[in-house]
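Q: Sequence in, structure out?
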Amino acid sequence: MKSNSITIRKVNYDRKNECRIFQTCLKNWFSDPKELHLTEPKLRYPFDFEKWMKLFYSREKETWVLLKNDWITACISFRYCSGEKNGQLLHIIVDKDDRRNGYGKKLIFHTQDRLKELRCSHVTMKIHSGNKSAIHFFHSVGFQMKSTKTNKTILMEKSLKKSNK
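A: Exactly. Output:
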């Protein structure tokens, strides 16, 4: 039985080869318009990597990937506002074949640690109200419903002050 080597690293959008590999993963993950809509409603089908970069590549935004045996199997993006001491998860994606293996939780906990390093006291996440599995997932990692932004969006929040994971 082959053991799975798991690593987490930051995406460097300045490296063309790294972008090409990440783009391939994203295009595969978002071949279904519903997946793209539930993950990032600001993007329209078909998936456009250039628009993705414009939305998620800037100062105070980071994207991290989880690699299983050196292949990207999940990613998470977040932004932080140093002046406000809060972080916002923009999205988390796990390849369909690797869901329910704890990779999403690993990325969430890694991101929480990173946001604490950036002196953030809490983190929020907007979730499409129809994405019941995401709502359940975020409850399972300690997020609480803060408000319903619209009929389509739920805001969830987690305090980072305690060392709870």
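Helices lie at 16-29, 33-39, 49-56, 103-117, 132-140.
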